[in-house]
């Protein structure tokens, strides 16, 4: 469906060189669109400008602020705004794709400064915030400029409807499903094994729930072992584990994509005990694509991704007894475990970039019907007459 | 003296706000037009595909007749009757496809695939249009927009009552 070659501007609100779901999504999308023959420019806050790919333009150094229970690396202020306007004016874009335009960062600034075909993607799923009553009137006129809104999950869509009274089309995050499709099972990871991938030091990833569940699990499955992959210092976690069970845990550190595929193909169960802060669950989609049978907490994002338990087992979030029960049931019922892995793998194919990028592109096409190009708003044109020289001085 | 400057500044800010609001509303009307143009073109395409299906081997003579009639009605309906006509076409297509026509011939497979892709797009286009319309209606209800008649003579947009479950 990718027929016409477009000039696409994508804005990433968070620091490009810090790890995060939105950044990964923007990078994969940009690279996919470039491979499909489009001209793509990404504007993002960047810490180290020497280490960015050619398609990324730096908007300046990000500022770390606490937001939504975590530290967000965002960027705003007059200099950033001048850069955003300059990028839009020089980019000659057919369409702008703004990520998280409701976060105080450059996506919002771009949405304010530009006019023409614009698409916004909303990633975050948050509980209703009181502050929204104050922020709403400021955001509304800006957000309504978007010709189409995309939410990455039903949870993100609900957040948007609740906060800004506007609807969105749900298009899931993309994964490269074929990278995980053909992992070779490795003997060292097979047997009664549980797998976990992620930055395990972060409390919201929920590793402690799994650690607490292990005493019960090991009573029924004495040979159970747990493999944990992901960056971080395991010492802190090991301290919290019952000394008798420490030998069951293996920390693998950060693993390569190929190892990840093999890992997912080998383990009996993939455990996702996240306690919140997740809006889509990219790792869960990858685990499914790798053919692992998944046991996940019932946070909204996972619940909708697994369709209430159809494509993976769901346990009550933060309840290690419920987790233990589900794990034991599945370890005992080999047929059901294998069957669940199979339907999960088939389900995960719809998250493949081939499918997802096509859906995003058809949204682009719908926004392009007006035949306009992206340009600065008239308000900003008169502004830049006054500020034009100043902002050039900044560069 | 001080108060008069204050009043002038306040007045200027207010005028700026009015012009800002007017631009905002104008943009919304533009969005409604764009999303409608998009939906309209997709619906036209669907009618064309429906006609092709009616002429192909998938349809028996009776359904072909029904489908052709529905497609022409949808194409030629005036705006007020458009929703009803398009729903009729959806119904006719639904009847035909629900029969489980599993045609193996490549030409027809292509047609059916085209139809299902169009249906997906139309579903999204409806959502976009409905969102644009409700947002415009919402904004036009606000006090400042009514009092200063910022909408001018533009007619109040109405939602396209296409029931998505018929699709």
Explain how this protein is built.
The complex is a heterodimer of chains A (395) and B (167). In chain A, the strands form 4 sheets. In chain A, strands 3-2-1-6-8-9-10 form a 7-stranded parallel β-sheet, with helices on both faces. Chain A has a 6-stranded parallel β-sheet with strand order 13-12-11-14-15-16, with helices on both faces. In chain A, strands 4-5 form a two-stranded antiparallel sheet. In chain A, helix 8 (235-239) links the parallel strand 12 and strand 13. Chain A has 2 domains: 7-174 and 352-394, Glycogen Phosphorylase B (Rossmann fold, 3-Layer(aba) Sandwich), CATH 3.40.50; 178-349, 3-Layer(aba) Sandwich (Rossmann fold), CATH 3.40.50. Chain A is α/β, with parallel strands linked by helices and 395 residues long. Chain A has helices at 21-35, 78-91, 106-113, 132-143, 154-164, 177-181, 207-220, 235-239, 257-266, 282-289, 300-305, 320-332, 334-348, 353-367, 378-394; strands spanning 7-11, 39-44, 56-58, 63-67, 70-74, 95-99, 114-115, 118-122, 148-151, 169-170, 193-197, 225-229, 249-253, 269-272, 293-297, 313-315, 375-376. In chain A, helix 2 packs across helix 15, helix 7 crosses helix 12 (320-332) and helix 10 (282-289) packs across helix 13. Chain A has 15 helices and 17 strands. Chain B contains 5 helices and no strands. In chain B, helix 2 packs antiparallel against helix 3 (79-98). By secondary structure, chain B is an all-alpha fold. Chain B is rod-shaped and about 85 Å long. Chain B has one domain. Chain A binds chain B through residues 115, 141, 144-145, 147-149, 165-167, 169, 362-363, 366-367, 369-370, 377-379, and chain B through 20, 23-24, 27-28, 30-31, 33-35, 37-38, 41, 121, 124-125, 127-128, 130-131, 135, 138-139.
């Amino acid at each position: 469906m990718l027929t016409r070659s477009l000039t696409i501007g994508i804005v990433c609100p968070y620091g490009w060189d810090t790890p995060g779901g939105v950044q990964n999504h923007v990078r994969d999308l940009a690279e996919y669109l470039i491979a499909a023959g489009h001209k793509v420019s990404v504007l993002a806050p960047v810490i180290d400008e020497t280490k960015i790919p050619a398609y990324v333009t730096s908007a300046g150094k990000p500022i770390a602020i606490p937001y939504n229970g975590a530290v967000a690396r965002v960027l705003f202020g007059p200099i950033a705004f001048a850069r955003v306007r300059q990028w839009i004016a020089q980019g000659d874009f057919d369409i702008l794709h703004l990520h998280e335009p409701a976060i105080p960062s450059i996506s919002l600034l771009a949405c304010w400064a530009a006019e023409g075909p614009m698409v916004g993607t909303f990633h975050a799923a948050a509980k209703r915030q009181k502050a929204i009553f104050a922020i709403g009137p400021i955001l509304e006129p800006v957000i309504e400029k978007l010709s189409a809104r995309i939410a990455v999950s039903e949870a993100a869509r609900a957040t948007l409807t609740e906060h800004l009274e506007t609807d969105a089309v749900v298009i899931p995050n993309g994964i490269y499903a074929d990278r995980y499709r053909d992992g070779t099972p490795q003997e060292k990871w097979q047997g009664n094994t549980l797998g976990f991938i992620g930055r395990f030091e972060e409390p919201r990833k929920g590793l402690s729930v799994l650690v607490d569940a292990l005493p019960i699990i090991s009573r029924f499955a004495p040979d159970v072992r747990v493999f944990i992959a992901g960056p971080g210092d395991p010492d802190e976690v090991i301290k919290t584990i019952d000394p008798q069970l420490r030998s069951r845990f293996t920390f693998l550190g950060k693993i390569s994509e190929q190892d990840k595929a093999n890992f997912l193909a080998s383990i009996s169960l993939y455990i996702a005990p996240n306690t919140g802060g997740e809006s889509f669950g990219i790792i869960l989609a990858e685990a499914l694509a790798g053919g692992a049978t998944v046991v996940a907490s019932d946070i909204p994002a996972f619940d909708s991704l697994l369709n209430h338990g159809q494509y993976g087992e769901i346990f009550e979030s933060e309840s290690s007894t419920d987790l233990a029960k589900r794990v034991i049931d599945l370890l005992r019922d080999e047929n059901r475990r294998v069957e669940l892995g199979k339907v999960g793998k088939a389900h995960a194919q719809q998250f493949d970039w081939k499918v997802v990028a096509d859906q995003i592109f058809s949204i682009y096409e719908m926004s392009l019907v007006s035949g306009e190009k992206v340009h600065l708003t008239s308000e900003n044109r008169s502004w830049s007459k006054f500020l034009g020289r100043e902002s050039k001085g900044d560069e | 003296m001080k108060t008069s400057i204050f009043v002038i500044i306040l007045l200027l800010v207010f005028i700026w706000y009015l012009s800002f609001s007017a631009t905002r509303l104008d943009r919304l009307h533009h969005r409604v037009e764009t999303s409608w143009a998009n939906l309209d073109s997709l619906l036209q395409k669907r009618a064309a595909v429906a006609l092709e299906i009616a002429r192909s081997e998938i349809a028996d003579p009776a359904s072909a007749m029904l489908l052709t009639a529905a497609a022409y009605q949808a194409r030629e309906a005036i705006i007020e009757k458009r929703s009803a006509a398009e729903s009729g076409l959806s119904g006719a297509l639904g009847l035909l496809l629900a029969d489980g026509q599993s045609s193996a011939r490549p030409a027809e497979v292509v047609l059916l695939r085209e139809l299902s892709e169009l249906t997906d797009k139309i579903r999204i286009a409806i959502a976009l249009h409905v969102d644009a319309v409700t947002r415009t209606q919402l904004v036009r209800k606000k006090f400042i927009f009514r009092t200063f008649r910022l909408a001018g003579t533009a007619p109040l947009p109405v939602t396209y009552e296409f029931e998505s479950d018929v699709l």
